[in-house]
TrEMBL record:
Family designation: Belongs to the cytochrome P450 family.
PROSITE patterns membership: CYTOCHROME_P450
PANTHER family the UniProt entry points to: BIFUNCTIONAL ALBAFLAVENONE MONOOXYGENASE_TERPENE SYNTHASE, CYTOCHROME P450 FAMILY 4
Keywords per UniProt: Heme, Iron, Metal-binding, Monooxygenase, Oxidoreductase
Name of the protein this chain belongs to: Cytochrome P450
Annotated InterPro entries: Cyt_P450, Cyt_P450_CS, Cyt_P450_E_grp-IV, Cyt_P450_sf, Cytochrome_P450_Monoox
C-alpha cells in the first residue's frame, strides 16, 4: 500500500489508480450509498493510498495517505474548489440576489461563496477574515463561563435514574451555547424548534448531495413546504437578532461583526450575506460539537477505566468547583478523551468533495482536471499504519511521546490548510468544559439493549440516538 514510485516515469506512462469495479452509469454509487464507511475503508485497505471510485457521471479518487492529504489540503489547495453533490455553485454575483433557500441548495460553500470575482483565486478569504475576530483566543476564553453556566442550566433538569437521549441533550446544549456566545441570543426556550428546523435543512442538504436532481423550490410538495417552514423559522430567529443588535449598539459578538462588515461594504455585500455567514457558522458549529460530546459520553460509558481516570482528574483539578477557562490546560486527560473521540468518531467523516481545476499529481498518479477528490478522516484515522490498534478507544495514546512521530495528516478531524475549521479552538474548549461539567456530577451508562451504530450523513450521527441511564455522583 506504499505510494507508487514514479521516479523517471513520464506522466503519460504512469499507471491509473486502481479501484473497485462499478456498474454501467451508476459506477460505485450504490456501494457508496449503501455503506459509505465500510466501502471507503475497504477501498483504501484493498487498493491503496489513491483509489479510483466511479461516481455517477464523474471520476472520483479517494486519497488516504497522510502525505497525500497534506499535499491536497495545504500545498495544492489553490488547485481545488469545494463542490456539493458534484454540482458547482452559481457565480457569486447571481447568488447574491437570492435567498436562504439558495444557501441551503448550495451548502457546503465552495470557493466562490460570497466573493467578488476578483477574489476567486483566494477562496473563502474574505468570509474568513470577517468572522475571524469572533474566534480570537482571548474572545474564546471569555466564552468559557457561559458554556459552563448553560451546561449547568441544562443539567439542572436531569433526574437521577432516568434514561435520556444524550444525543438530543447535547444537540440542544451546543445550539444554545453557540446562540449565546456568538449571537448573544437566549435560545433556551427555542432550542428544540431551532434544532428541528436545522435538522430539516440538513436533511435537505444530504438529499441534494445524494440526488442532484431536485424538485424546484416553488412547487409546494410536502417536502418543500417543510423546508420553507424550517427556513422561515431560522429566518425569523435571525431577524429578531438583527433588530436586537440594531437597537443595542453595545453588543459585541459575531452578528455585530457581520453587520458592521455589511454596513462598511458599500453595497458590495448584499442584505442577505450576513445571514449566509451566520447560518454557516451555526450549522458548521453546533452539530459537530454536539456529536463529539455524544460519542465521548458513549465511549466513556463503555470504558470504565477511562471513566475512573476522568473522575480522578476532575477531582484533582477542580475540587468540586465548576471548571473555568484557566482550568482547561490542566484538564489534560479530559482533552485526551476528546481527541481520541474525534479520532474514532470524526463528526466530519468525509471532507466536502473537492474538484481539481488542473491535473493534480499525487501518490505517484496524475489525476485529470475535473476529478473529484474524496478525503475521509474516518478512513485515515483508523488506518493501522497510522495508529496502533486503531479500533481501540485509548485516550492515553495521546500522552505517548511516540505519537509525535505520527504524520501530521494522520489525524485531521478539523481538516487542515486554509479551509481548516475556524471553530477548532472554540470547539475543543467547549467539549472539554462541557464534558468536565457533566462528568463532575453525573455518571452516564448506555441504556440496556440500546443499539449504537454510526450513520454517516453530512456528519456522523448515532443512527438510533444515544439513550443513556444517568446517575448522580
Ligand atoms: C468538534 C467540533 C468540530 C469539528 C469536528 C469541525 C470540523 C470541521 C471541518 C472538518 C471543516 C472543514 C470541512 C471541509 O473542508 O469540508 C470545518 C469547517 C468549518 N467549521 Fe468546523 N468543526 C467543529 C466545530 C466548529 C465550530 C464550533 C464552529 C463555529 C462556532 C465551526 C465553524 C466552521 C466553519 C465556519 C467552517 C467553514 C465551512 C465552509 O468553509 O464551508 N466548526 N469544520
Amino acid at each position: 500500500m506504499a505510494n507508487v514510485s514514479t521516479q523517471g516515469a513520464a506522466p503519460e506512462d504512469r499507471p491509473q489508480p486502481p479501484g473497485p469495479k462499478g456498474l454501467p452509469f451508476l459506477g460505485n454509487g450504490l456501494q457508496l450509498k449503501r455503506d459509505p464507511l465500510g466501502f471507503l475503508t475497504d477501498c483504501a485497505r484493498t487498493y491503496g493510498d489513491v483509489v479510483r471510485i466511479s461516481l455517477p457521471g464523474q471520476a472520483g479518487f479517494l486519497i488516504s495517505h497522510p502525505n497525500d492529504i497534506e499535499k491536497t489540503l495545504v500545498a495544492g489547495a489553490q488547485n481545488f474548489v469545494k463542490t456539493s453533490g458534484g454540482q458547482q455553485s452559481r457565480p457569486a454575483s447571481r447568488r447574491r440576489e437570492q435567498d436562504l433557500m439558495t444557501w441551503v441548495r448550495n451548502f457546503p460553500s465552495d470557493g466562490e461563496a460570497w466573493l467578488p470575482e476578483k477574489e476567486l483565486a483566494h477562496p473563502s478569504h474574505r468570509e474568513r477574515r470577517q468572522i475571524q475576530p469572533a474566534f480570537h483566543s482571548e474572545r474564546i476564553e471569555a466564552y468559557a463561563e457561559t458554556m459552563v453556566a448553560l451546561t449547568q442550566r441544562s443539567l439542572a433538569t436531569w433526574k437521577d435514574g432516568e434514561i435520556r437521549n444524550a444525543h438530543v441533550d447535547m444537540t440542544h446544549l451546543a445550539l444554545v451555547v453557540i446562540a449565546k456566545t456568538l449571537f448573544s441570543a437566549d435560545a433556551g426556550g427555542e432550542a428544540k424548534k431551532l434544532a428541528d428546523a436545522f435538522s430539516t435543512i440538513i436533511a435537505q442538504i444530504v438529499s441534494q448531495m445524494v440526488n442532484p436532481i431536485q424538485i424546484p423550490n416553488f412547487i409546494p410538495t410536502p417536502h418543500n413546504l417543510r423546508l420553507r417552514k424550517a427556513i422561515a423559522q431560522i429566518d425569523g430567529f435571525l431577524e429578531a437578532l438583527v433588530r436586537q443588535h440594531r437597537a443595542n449598539q453595545d453588543i459585541n459578538d459575531l452578528i455585530s461583526i457581520l453587520l458592521k462588515a455589511q454596513d462598511e461594504s458599500d453595497g458590495a455585500v448584499s442584505a442577505n450575506d450576513w445571514r449566509y455567514q451566520a447560518m454557516t457558522v451555526f450549522v458548521a458549529g453546533y452539530e459537530t460539537t454536539a456529536l463529539t460530546l455524544t460519542w465521548a459520553l458513549y465511549l466513556i460509558s463503555e470504558n470504565p477505566d477511562v471513566e475512573a481516570k476522568l473522575a480522578a482528574e476532575l477531582n484533582a483539578v477542580l475540587a468540586g468547583q465548576p471548571p473555568r477557562a484557566a482550568d482547561v490546560p490542566k484538564l489534560r486527560y479530559t482533552e485526551m478523551i476528546v481527541k481520541e473521540t474525534l479520532r474514532l468518531y470524526p463528526p466530519v467523516w468525509l471532507l466536502g468533495p473537492r474538484t481539481c481545476i488542473e491535473d493534480f499529481e499525487v501518490g505517484g498518479y496524475r489525476l485529470p482536471a475535473g476529478s473529484t477528490i474524496l478525503i475521509s478522516p474516518w478512513v485515515t484515522q483508523r488506518d493501522p499504519r497510522n495508529f496502533e490498534h486503531p479500533q481501540i478507544f485509548d485516550p492515553d495514546r495521546w500522552a505517548d511521546e511516540s505519537m509525535k512521530q505520527t504524520p501530521k495528516f494522520a489525524y485531521f478531524p478539523f481538516s487542515g490548510g486554509e479551509r481548516q475549521c475556524i471553530g477548532k479552538s472554540y470547539a475543543m474548549m467547549e467539549a472539554v468544559l462541557v464534558l468536565a461539567t457533566i462528568a463532575q456530577s453525573w455518571r452516564l451508562k448506555l441504556a440496556p439493549g440500546a443499539r449504537v451504530e454510526p450513520q454517516p450523513l453530512v456528519t456522523l450521527q448515532p443512527r438510533f440516538g444515544m439513550p443513556m441511564k444517568i446517575a448522580a455522583r
